[in-house]
Write a structure and sequence with these properties.
Layout lengths: L1 H27 L8 H10 L7 E5 L5 H10 L2 E5 L3 H11 L5 E4 L7 H6 L2 E4 L3 H14 L5 E5 L10 E7 L2 E9 L7
Length: 184
């Protein structure tokens, strides 16, 4: 009976942790939502991610884009996730991939990693993209590419887009570069 009570208690604690994590990210940032593997692959193909390049995923969730970048494209990958539960999943999933680094950090302190990235992958609401747009584009070098799944920046125009399927919905992936800024 004691084993059952301990197991039940652990399950309840896990559920509370999961719920609190999602509530935290939904109130203060963006709710955690998976993107489909196909949409991630289409985004990374649009950015022409190559072996040895570095992918930065701001809001990496459970690390799907990180794993696909390393496993399917031969890239190195860095992920930022603020929500504790998806961060924990991403850390566990990254254990078998030495080329993946995952940090529990706010994306607004990603300055050095933005400078190192060859490709930045984003699946963030328009409101979050507007909040971080200046920081991201000011930190980019002219070779860095940004791919944004489903959502667009306000001040910058994509240089290219492609259709994809994400969560059974037809959507677009947008490709940006620093030189695509309006008014430059």
């Amino acid at each position: 009976m004691l084993i059952f009570e301990i197991a039940f208690g652990l399950i309840i604690l896990g559920l509370i942790f999961w719920l609190a994590s999602h509530l935290y990210s939904s109130i203060f940032y963006v709710p955690y939502v998976n993107s489909s593997s196909q949409a991630i692959r289409d985004a990374l193909k649009l950015a022409k991610l190559k072996r040895g390049q570095t992918l930065l995923d701001l809001g990496c969730g459970r690390g799907d884009a990180l794993v696909i970048a390393v496993r399917d494209f031969g890239a190195k990958a860095i992920g930022y996730e603020i929500s504790p539960f998806p961060y924990f999943l991403a850390k566990i999933r990254s254990l078998k991939y030495p080329n993946i680094s995952v940090y529990r950090r706010d994306i607004e302190i990603a300055g050095d990693d933005i400078k190192k990235a060859d490709v930045i992958y984003l699946y963030l609401f328009n409101s979050v993209l507007a909040r971080i747009e200046n920081q991201i584009f000011s930190g980019l070098n002219t070779k860095t590419k940004i791919v944004s799944l489903a959502f667009m920046f306000k001040k910058h125009q994509p240089i290219k887009s492609a259709e994809t399927q994400n969560l059974s919905i037809k959507t677009k992936v947008y490709l940006y570069k620093k030189t695509a800024r309006l008014g430059q």
